[in-house]
Structures are given as structure tokens and as C-alpha cells.
Design brief:
Distance between the termini of chain B: 32 Å
Radius of gyration of chain B: 20 Å
Order of helices and strands of chain A: EEEHEEHEHHHHEHEHEEHHH
Shape of chain B: globular
Largest sheet of chain B: 6 strands, mixed
Number of domains of chain A: 1
CATH architecture of chain A: 3-Layer(aba) Sandwich
CATH class of one domain in chain B: Alpha Beta
Helix content of chain B: 25-40%
Number of helices of chain A: 11
Structural class of chain A: alpha/beta
Strand content of chain A: 15-25%
Oligomer: heterodimer
CATH topology of chain A: Rossmann fold
CATH architecture of one domain in chain B: 3-Layer(aba) Sandwich
Largest interface: A-B, 39 and 36 residues
Helix content of chain A: 25-40%
Number of strands of chain B: 11
Distance between the termini of chain A: 32 Å
CATH superfamily of chain A: P-loop containing nucleotide triphosphate hydrolases
Order of helices and strands of chain B: EEEHEEEHEHHHHHEHEHEEH
Amino acid sequence: MIEVDRLTVEFGDHRAVDGVSFAVPSGDAYGIVGESGSGKSTILRVLCGLNRLWSGRLVIADAAQRPRRSRAFHRELQMVFQDPYASLHPRQTVDRALAEPLRIHGIGDHQQRIARALREVGLGAEHRFRYPHQLSGGQRQRVAIARALILEPRILLLDEPTSALDVSVQAEILNLLQRLRREHALTYLLVSHNLAVVAHLCARVAVMNAGRFVEELDQAALANRRAREPYTAQLLRASDGYDRAAAERLVAYD
Amino acid sequence: MSGPLLDVENLRVSFRTPRGTMEAVRGVTFSMGREKLGIVGESGSGKSLTGRSLLRLLPPGAELRADRLTFDGVNLLTAAPAALRALRGRRLSMVMQDPKFSLNPVMPVGEQIAEAYRAHRKASVREAREKALAMLEAVRIREPRRVYDFYPHEVSGGMGQRVMIAMMLAPDPDLLVADEPTSALDVTVQMQVLAILDDLVSERGMGLIFISHDLTLVGSFCDRVLVMYGGRVVETLAANGLGEARHPYTRGLMACLPRLDSGAGDLPVLERDPAWLDPL
């Protein structure tokens, strides 16, 4: 469903993404973990067409992609952003936020589609005419997911979808994402700094540092902490919580 | 010193709203010595307001009440504003979450540390500069002389947070309140910053209140943890005893964290019991 071959993105003389290749089969969930500045979000921005300066080969939904995307492309691929406080227009109701993609793509039947999208993300009719400030953080992220799903895409890009949320709300959103992927046979590409979140949702995970993929692991390798690369081993250890001795042994990998 | 460093009894913070009084902190009691005390809770649990109450730095409109609020024998409830100012920063200090919003964007970071030092200690400009450089070194900044002249936009998040910690520790406080000091940082940088705080607590015999939403992190870092929910402390735990948590809220929070080996099944979801809001 997604094929990325030697993707490179440069900002001035800084190489944010440096020859990254990976493939995600249809219906799979693929994760990218990395620390800030590793280039993981840049990959998502290239894939969804927000970043148009790149080189390499990109095949999404069986079509080779150029920097500019067609309108039809966005019916295949949608993105959910990190911060639901920032990604919803504060002066538009939920109804209007959900109607906009339908209007852009000339899809009718707004009433039913919006009602169904809300139902699928676990919101009720009572939320439909509320403004974002009248919703909790978790409810807002549900709206953002509904907005991405309302065009019935086959691919969902998720950029740190739970890192702005409390852990109890995070669990609810992760469960929702699992269910939606099962029911709609969606393909996910998830980016996060949280190894456990990625390991939970994704069958395969790439560890990224300084623009490159350090290594790729499957769910079982992560669960058993079988890292081949020292960078991954260090990341795994640091994710377990504070350890004075481990802090002493930290190495910078640039 | 006799008695605890900090003694808090029945702390309450409320806000008057058009729809009645909203109680954000509802009777928090604890005391601490020169140790690392964690306060954990989700958004709206009252953990940050509890931390701010200790410095009497509450947003306008907030009403603070307590049966007792003493810091090293000083009654913070009745202390005059001048007396509070003499304490704040000098003996009782606070590190905020995000260096981007807490540092002055148009002043080199080194000068900000020196300025903070001179505000609390009698020192010449030169002495303050020396102290600032020493503090930058203490928080393991590799080239303190170079970084001294950097503006906040020229430093990374981790470095900015270390600058903040250097600034707050320069006057050698007895108690540091750190509100999510590492949440904006990568896990490895977070570990390094915590190691610095850890060493400073043990070397200087400082008390540290570490406020965070991250149960695992607080459990591994602090000596003791207060778990807050709905403005109350629902449970106090020895940090290495998180596994023996009794309160259903604490247990629920631990259970709903995804783990590396949790598999792809559904995570348990926290069911909130209205009874948790009742006094213990």
C-alpha cells in the first residue's frame, strides 16, 4: 500500500531524511520511533503531500506519487495530527469540521455521513454541534479521527496521536484506533517517540535517528527487547524509567 | 534542623466562578524533608496548583486556604509579601515545564542565570558571571563559556531545560518544586537532566518536589509518591512500591499504560468511580 524507496529530504544543507526505504502492505500497521529531530514527522509530511521538496521514489495506493497530489489522492490517504487542541478550528463546530472534507470532495449526504463518522469514533449526536472548547482532549482527538475517516480513506497517517493526552485517555484512543483498523481494513503509518505506543499498535517498527533508519523490528523482537543496534538498546533502556547508572552510560548517536 | 522542611495540612485552592465555587485542590496533607517527593496525577488533578501553592504563586482569583503551610518553620500563609519574596527563588524555587516560555527570548542565557543569582545573593557582576558559568558546568553543559552567550532560540530543548535548572539552583535553594521539568524532552535527554537533579539533591541535601503525569518515571526517580485525583491525594506510596498500589485509580492508571510486551489486544480502560472524589 505504501512503498518508499531512498527518500531524501533536505532543508538547506541539512539532510532531515537521508535515503530511507520501507514498505507497508495493505492492512498493516507500521511504526516509526525516534527522538525529536530524527526526521520521522518529515516522512509523514512528504507522504501526505505537505512537503513537496524531496527525492526518491514513492508509491502510495498503487500509484507512483509526484510532489503535487491530486484531489483523488486525499480520498485514499488522510492524516491525524498530534495536538487536537491545535488541529481543530476553534470557531467551527464539530459538524462544520466534518462537513468540510465532504464539501471539498463534492460528496453529498452530509447528514448521514457525519452521524455515522461520529458514531464510529464513539461520539454521540449531542457532540455534533459543539465547539472544540466544549470537548475534552480525548473527544477532540476522536473528532480529528472522524474527520480523517469521513472520506473513507484506505491509509491513515498518525503523527503522535496520543502524546497530548492523559494516559487513561490514551488507552481509549489506542483501543479505538485498533478497532477502526480491524473494521475498515485500514493501513496505518504511525509516528511516535513512545516505544510502547508504537509496539502496541504496529506489527513492524522502524527506529530512526538523524534522518536514517537504524533498524527495523517486529512486535515480538520489541516485546523481548531483542535490539541489534546499540542505539535501539539505549532507547529501550531509557523508556523503562529513570536509572542513575544507565544515565551515566548514555552515549550520543549523531 | 528540627521538624520537617515542608509541612502542609488540609491545603485547599478554590476559584469563584459565575456558577459557584470550583474547588481545584480539596484538602491535601503531606510533609517532607530533604528527599525526592513525586506528585502524580492526570490533567485537572490539582497537582500543579498544589506545587504553585507552596510558593504562593497562584493565578489571580484563586483562593488559598490551609490549616498549616509551613516551610522550615516559616508560616507561608501569614508571611508578608516582602518575606515571601525573600524566600522565593532564594530558598524555595520552581522549575517550569517548557524552557521556550520561561526564558527571556532577548537575553543571553548565561546573563539570565547571573541576573537571577544577583537578585538573591550579594555579588558583583563578575562574581555572578563566574557563578553562572559554574552552574552551567554543574548541569553538564559542555562548553559553558560558549553557551553563556547563546540566546534561548539557539539552544535545544534539553539544553534550555538545563539552563532553567541552573538558574533555579544558583542561589542554592532548600526546596525545589519542579513541574513537569522533563516532559518536553526526549527520553535520553530526560534521563540526563534527571541524573543532574538527582545528584544535586544528594550533594546539596535539597528537597525536591517532582510533579508529573508519568507514573513510571516518578516511580523510578522519587523516594515517595503522592497520587492525586480530583484535588485530593488518594494514595501515598514508596516509589519502589508502585506495584503494591491499593487504590483502584492508581492501579487503573498503571494498567492502562501500553507496554512493549502488551500485545495487540485492547488495553484496560480506566473506569472512574465517583466515590474516588469523596474524602478518604
